[in-house]
Amino acid sequence: MLRYVSLAAFAAILLAAPALAQNIVIQPRAGSAAEAKGDIRVNVAMSFFVAAPTDDSEPAVKAQEQARRVIYESAARECDVLRGTIAGECRLESININVNRQYGNQVPQGFNASGNFTYHVKLK
To answer: Sign of the CA dihedral 33, 39, 40, 41?
Structure first.
């Protein structure tokens, strides 16, 4: 009986030893130091419809270019809006633009244009 107790105690020590040797390190979330200083990221999304031919003609290409231009210009002006409201400093980090054809029998022909912008902002 003593032999079984000794083996059980030895097995318990072996199983517990690795647990005693573990170090658990909790890393702060990336960006949390910047957030503590009042730095945040702001994401803005916009979308609209442009009525235009959906073929590969010159007017269709121009309509797509104009839609992208509107999105780029809106992205450029957004820092002014942020500075006028919550931001002391503002920097555009990324832009994502999608222009998709919309055509069919029951919907007008044209393009759905959308843009997503990300800004790095230092709060006032």
So the answer is: negative
pTM of the model: 0.67
The token pair at 7 is 């083996």
Q: Are 82 and 93 in contact (CB under 8 A)?
A: no
Per-residue pLDDT tens over the stretch 12-63: 444 444 444 555 555 556 655 545 578 999 999 999 999 999 999 999 999 9
Is 53 within the bounds of a domain?
A: yes
Read off the CATH number of the domain in which 94 is found.
3.30.110
Q: Is residue 69 part of a domain?
A: yes
Token pair 């990336």 in the structure block, residue: 30
Query: What six digits make up the tokens of 75?
Result: 């992205």
